[in-house]
Specification:
Elements (H helix, E strand, L loop, with lengths): L13 H23 L6 E2 L5 E2 L1 H17 L5 E3 L3 H9 L3 E9 L1 H6 L5 E8 L2 E9 L4 E6 L3 E6 L5 E3 L9 E6 L5 H7 L5 E7 L3 H7 L5 E4 L3 E2 H13 L3 E4 L13 E2 L2 E4 L2
Parallel strand pairs: 3-4, 10-11
Antiparallel strand pairs: 1-2, 4-5, 5-6, 6-7, 7-8, 8-9, 12-16, 13-15, 14-16
């Protein structure tokens, strides 16, 4: 994979990077699936969250590939954030990666895990890829270039968020972090047709492809959990904001997110 020339202050064509981002995510997905049905080698990280062989394989592959693709853009990955994160978070432009989003779902073998790759510029995600290894779907979007899904090696097909149906919103909720009482309170004045549960960044994909309308997240997440999904949804015509409607920004020193809401068209 040839490197893309990129000066520190030069503009980046985010849409032009999407084919390479898709290819990198697909390779990482293949590596993850290579250990999916075997011994995951699970151990606990310093924060007690689980880490598997698949996390590490995908991390090494993605970080190396992105460094080759854009040598002058630093890479922040969940698995290397302690060494690379603080310096990169202060950069104007950097990659933000979750090599295996939904490790708990991976360990349960329920298929609801993703590979997330995002490009951050001036505190906002301008391009993102979310790959679902088990289904083979690769969702991608870039600012000003629209969003697409590629299924099992086919050509990318355009997708878009939908206006909320008159009968009420389809609301996505988290599988591993649900707080039903808080969610009930948040949705008290919102007409809801259905609630659907999903793990990882799958929830962003369902808003982006027009099969869901709303994804409120009231508990904490990390920036690498959301950046690729936000880029995807916004490229598809939706938006992600803080709970009070203000812009959602990246580059926090601790990489921790407050609550947010994702909306379709």
């Amino acid at each position: 994979m040839s490197a893309v020339a990129e000066a520190a202050g030069a503009a980046v064509d985010a849409a032009a990077l999407l084919p390479a981002m898709r290819a990198i995510a697909a390779r990482a997905g293949d590596a993850i699936l290579g250990v999916y049905h075997g011994d995951h080698g699970v151990r606990a990280k310093a924060d007690a969250s689980p880490l598997t062989i698949a996390d590490e394989l995908a991390d090494r592959l993605i970080v190396a590939a992105l460094r080759q693709l854009t040598p002058n853009i630093p890479v922040v990955s969940e698995e290397t954030v302690e060494t690379a994160g603080p310096a990169a978070a202060g950069a104007r432009r950097y990659w933000l990666v979750d090599p295996l989003d939904g490790t708990k779902e991976f360990i349960k073998r329920n298929g609801e895990f993703t590979v997330n790759i995002a490009l951050i510029e001036d505190g906002s995600p301008i391009a993102g890829v979310v790959h679902i290894p088990v289904s083979g779907e690769i969702f991608a979007g870039a600012r000003g270039a629209g969003a697409s899904v590629q299924r099992k090696g086919g050509m990318p097909q355009a997708i878009a968020c939908r206006p909320c149906p008159p009968g009420g919103a389809v609301v996505m909720t988290s599988r591993s972090h649900a707080d039903n009482a808080a969610l009930d309170a948040y949705l008290a004045d919102t007409p809801v047709a259905e609630r659907r549960i999903a793990g990882s960044a799958l929830k962003f994909c369902r808003v982006a492809d027009g099969t869901a309308d709303l994804y409120p997240r009231l508990g904490p997440t990390s920036e690498w959990d959301t950046a690729a999904g936000q880029a995807l949804v916004e490229a598809a015509g939706g938006r992600m904001t803080m709970l009070d409607g203000t812009p959602f920004r990246y580059g926090k020193k601790d990489f921790l997110n407050p609550g947010f809401v994702v909306r379709g068209a």
